[in-house]
Amino acid sequence: MDNIVGKKTGLAVAANLTVAILVVLWLIPTIGLLVSSFRDRDAISATGWWRAPFSTEQTFRGRGDTETVTQDGALFILTGNVFDDPEVAPSFPDGPATISAFGTRGNNPGEYTAGTTADLGDGEALLINADGTYRYALPEDPGSRGPRYYIQAKTPPKFTLSNYETVITAGGMGQAFINTLTVTIPATIIPILMAAFAAYALAWMDFAGRSWIIAAIIGLLVVPLQLALVPMLQLHNQVGIGQSFLGIWLAHSAFGQPLAVYLLRNYMIGLPRDIIESARVDGGTDFQIFMKIVLPLSFPALAAFAIFQFLWTWNDLLVAKVFLPSGEATKVMTVKIADDLLGSRGGDWGILASAAFVSIAVPLLVFFSLQRYLVRGLLAGSVK
Amino acid sequence: MNPVFQGLLTILIGVGGIFAYFVLSNMLLDKVLFPAKGPNASRNINRANLIRPWLFLAPTIIALSLYLVYPVIGSFIRSLYNRSGDQFIGFGNYSSLIASPDFRTAFMNNVLWALFVPAVSTFLGLVIAQLTDKLSWGNIAKSIIFMPMAISFVGASLIWKFVYAIDPNLGIINAIRASMGLNPLDVLQLAFWNNFFLMAILIWVQTGFAMVILSAALRGIPEETIEAAVIDGANPFQIFMKIQVPQVTGTIVVVWTTTTILVLKVFDIVYAMTGGNFNTQILPSYMMQFMFRDDGRATAVAIVIMLIVTPVMIQNIIQARKEMR
Amino acid sequence: MIRTLSGVSVVALLAVSASSASAQDLMFPKGEGDFSWAALESFAASHDYTGEKLMVTGATTGDDAERYRTLYAYFTDATGAEVEYSGSESFEQDIVIASQAGGLPDVALFPQPGLAKDLASKGALVAVDDAMTDFMTTNYAAGDSWKQLATFPGSDGADHVFGLFFGTDVKSLVWYVPEQFEEAGYEIPETQEDLFALSEQIVADGGTPWCIGLGSGAATGWPATDWVEDMMLRTASLEDYDRWVSNDLKFNDPIVVNAIEQYGKYALTEGFVDGGPSAAASTDFRDSPDGMFDFPPKCYMHKQASFIPIFFPEGVEAGTDVEFFYFPPFASEESLGRPVLGSGGLASVTNDRDVTKGFMEFLGSPIAHEIMMAQGQFLSPHKDANLDIYTSDVQRALGEILTTATSFRFDGSDLMPGEIGTNAFWTGMVDYTTGKPAQQVADEVQTRWDAIQ
């Protein structure tokens, strides 16, 4: 007995471990995106996101303050604190940090240890202490433009909500959010309803040509939708639909059909035959059987497909660009983000990251709320 | 009008419209045209049953023929014409495609994608679905694996840029290499293997899909079957391989097929990550190069894409026919 | 270059966002400042389109688009016509879809003339009036070459002028940080020979001279095409350059291969490029200049067009923290003068209406150019536009390069057919940068070109 128990816990540990490793692997990129969404563009391109929570040693530069100039014999002396320098101060909003090293040239900014005096020849000398106070001795009058110095200091980690602010408060984002919902909700429900009826017909009704239709639908699964964009838009214009919400619903519904029918038919065909047969014997029409028996039993499959169709339409950019007019009133979020926000901000990774998280929120909510219906697959399956 | 209200109204019209179609058309059939009562009741029922499948199928068939069949036929015809579309050149576009080394690279890469991505994501999806089932934190794990599904391809490409970045300050792979004292390496320029680094992105996204569907299927297996095997002394691995996997073969085929098809449509990842450079081109992104410029060639590529999946299609059609008998 | 990105100085940017709050207000009050207000008044007196609506599309988005909206407010003020501007990052694709689906706007602002040429041949564009055909010749510096660039065959096969250039970028620039040059004692090179010697000097001093980034998603490779075009202008005659663009000079001709290899002298020489050539091939062009601003600098020079300052790290001020010098000619090729490579946006009519004609006239008036210039790094070759309007010295210096160039040539890849200029040439340059021989790359591009003729 002990042996079996030992085996079992061993297996459980292995299972836990495997899943843990996979979860971590899956999570790393997402965390990277999440962390990046709270950093500004410069921070993102300066250090890796995994270093974001730690203070990093960075180099800053400032100029000797010429207003403090005093003369000491032949030398001109500048004094002050580097953390008061207008170029340095903004990086240390929480007050001075500790300086580890300093230098006078950009290509060797950490030449001297803080607290030591750097002899620069000709009587020129610079001393910067760890607390930021400095003394710059110059053989000539610096005029109005002080000499350069470079310092190395640890900067505290810096996070910002400004990326989210930019994304959320961008003009028209609220309208875009509503537009996205206006597109996705019908574009999820309509194709599912259509496909559920069709899948039932193909799974449980007998009629001539059934196998041909099944074959055709499976064949159509693979059509790249890029092919259909231009001809369909032309057709929409000819019949007067033009670029409109109706047009995009029709397009999404049609493009989602093959997969929806394919998945749902595969599910429905696995439903217990005797339930449907006995309902038929009781005189139910197929419409009644479908509405009262098949639809409730197929709920897990419908929920699963609903999630995916919702995600695809939510994240869709291509179809929205083609079938909706490009004005502000009809822009969906993906178009807004891709064309408006990113366009002018170019390689602003922070904006892109936060935009990704803003647009991920609703799909995740949908997933979590529908997840319990997926679990109900257990109950539906046990009827079998 | 308030945009929220307007949005709600349009949603109601759209969803209500399709619902009304099914309810009303069936009511018309059962109550008005062929009522199941009176002298001709049984004849009417039979007639109604002849028509009903087509009522069920009509929206789907109309949508499919308009939005997919018509463009496909149109595209096939277009692929037989030259770039400006005014001259019939037979299979000229196809032969020039075959002669092009870029196309051959894209084709070979695509075959790799079509084999590798569905295999790995289905396998991982199955394993995760099985393992998380018994874990106390299984649902959390599932949600995390599923999360990439909710990220758009652009967002996904962005985050993987951070993973693959050549600068060890930015890219985590090169950061790890640097900590081991190795030189930084651009994995996206690594001949041949770079394809796999791109595939990893799609696998990362798609495993959640496989997991959700397979998890539902695994839970559908009757408890008694598994209990019986446990009593017979089968170990968990044997139960998984010999009892559970065979029971969900149908679903595995569905997931595999769906992923294969997706692989043949997704151009965004290659488009955003390498632009097809460094020999990473695949057919969908290759096709995008020609879209709106040389439609003859673009449509020819699309037809080739469809041909690649034909074996998978045929297998599925045979399967469907078997089930019907 | 894929599209004309125009930089916005921080000041102008703030000014713009302030103005966008109160929609149709005029940003610069009429009658104040150095603007040519008289031109606006006379335009207003002769044009009245009250109640009309005009749809304009273009590739500029976000804050950049706001600058255009600021401009259109003046058109509305003068004529009463409402202008609706809609910008899209994928304008190139959208406008083609729109032309096929019959949903063209009234006026399209093409970021490059190549696409306009395609659409013109399909009859989607309306040629300008006879009165406007010579407009650029008389009013723009180097006007004849501008006119030539906007002249293509229409659907009838005959040549017409299809629009007006509006907004320009200068490409032959090398950006550097003056303080770093000062500290290291480097001088601005006057010749290509000096530039190469300086690069070697920097390497000898333990630094890295160049930051190059070719990454740009699907458009990866385009920055290298600018290098090659600039090298063509510095090693071959203008005639050869023009013949190259039209493929009368084959892409695999020794002249072209030499220009590619001249780029390679910088990009492929060991130690010349930060991270080496393979890093150059994958670094995003928007991130690559960052290296100049590190301490110690990862590189000292960055060759890029006049729009690049918008991608510099926050707080970097063009003109003080960073400067540019003209990408110099070869001392050994003195006869070629000081050529300038640039690019520009073309405004074309897509819908023949009275109000669109009036709109084109408005875009041609100096006041329209001045209002754009006053908002940031918009460069204009318009001779009547007041240079004092430029907001910074950098902008003024760029404007001067534009108006004093001995010869001006347009970005060749923007003029080549789409499959070459926005695809084969790009990927070819990536191949070359990552190790393919120049001859082989050139052969492959030429093969692709042969295939489309």
Can you walk me through this structure?
The complex is a heterotrimer of chains A (384), B (325) and C (453). Chain A has three domains: 2-51; 56-155, no CATH class; 164-382, MetI-like fold. Helices cover 58% and strands 12% of the residues of chain A. Chain A has 14 helices and nine strands. In chain A, the strands form two sheets. Chain A has a five-stranded antiparallel β-sheet, with no helix packed on it. Chain A has a four-stranded antiparallel β-sheet with strand order 1-9-4-5, with no helix packed on it. Chain B folds into two domains: 3-78, no CATH class; 97-324, MetI-like (MetI-like fold, Orthogonal Bundle). Chain B is globular, with a radius of gyration of 26 Å. In chain B, 48% of the residues are buried. With 453 residues, chain C is an alpha/beta fold. Chains in contact: A-B, A-C, B-C. Chain A binds chain C through residues 40-42, 45, 59, 61, 90, 105-109, 148, 150, 171, 229-230, 233-234, 236-237, 242-243, 321-322, 326-328, 338-347, and chain C through 5, 20, 57, 59-65, 84, 86-90, 93-94, 97, 100-103, 177, 179-180, 183-184, 205-207, 284, 286-287, 290, 294-297, 310-311, 313-315. Chain A: One of its GO terms (biological process) is transmembrane transport. Chain A: The chain crosses the membrane at residues 12-35, 183-205, 212-233, 245-264, 293-314, 349-370. Chain A: Keywords: Cell membrane, Membrane, Transmembrane, Transmembrane helix, Transport. Chain A: InterPro entries: MetI-like, MetI-like_sf.
State the name of the first-level CATH class of the largest domain in chain A: Mainly Alpha
The tally of strands of chain B reads: 0
Low-confidence stretches of chain B: none
Question: CA-to-CA gap between the ends of chain A?
Answer: 34 Å
How much helical structure, as a percent, in the residues of chain A? 55-70%
Largest sheet of chain B: none
CATH architecture of the largest domain in chain A: Orthogonal Bundle
Main interface by residue count = A-B, 119 and 109 residues
The CATH topology assignment of the largest domain in chain B is: MetI-like fold
Keywords (chain B): Cell membrane, Membrane, Transmembrane, Transmembrane helix, Transport
Membrane topology (chain B): Multi-pass membrane protein
Subcellular location (chain B): Cell membrane
Family (chain B): Belongs to the binding-protein-dependent transport system permease family.
